[in-house]
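Field reference: sequence -> structure
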Amino acid sequence: MKKTSITAFVSTAVVIIIAATSFSCSSTTAHLAVPGEDFILRERISSEYLAIADAYVDLEKYDKAVTYYRLAMKDKKLYWTVYYKLGRTYALAKDWKDAEDVYDEMIERDPKNVNLKLSRAYIKAMSGDLDDAMMIYKSLMEEEPDNEEIIVNYIAILLSQGRAELAETQLDVLKEKFPDNKSISDFSKKINDALKDDGSVPAKEKNADKN
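Structure field:
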């Protein structure tokens, strides 16, 4: 969806919400209340808030998206779905502290969710807490040894921490399990460069010497 279309949608949705709210507040003499109507109206408004927030994310207006996600969260049925989107929006906005708080709570509620843990590890890494990020990826490697994304991210974190030898070991795992992975060539070069700078000999060269 183009930004102009998204902006038009947001404007229209806001008008609808204002109109619906005004209608619900009108005099009972003008409108005979139907049982459950207020509840239905609140649900509809919450859904509109959610749609507006999603549109603001597409527009990269994350502060406005947060405002509307919080309004949508007042609907208990939408709460956890919206809360997840709120955490993702904090991460997109590089608000690492608030993003981490959301993901911590989500993981506490769903401790076996690998995708949530991956997101938390990424947030830790981006916020500069590389030691914790590395520990999370190490733990995830033990839980999901055949997850390609985890192996790739773990190697990247190891390299950022100057752990080239361990990164080389994990790269061998990646090559064995996912030989077509596009990151292998780049990782190989970075690991070789790091090991040479450190005075170490890459495993590939050690094997060549033996032959």
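Note: The mean pLDDT is 82.
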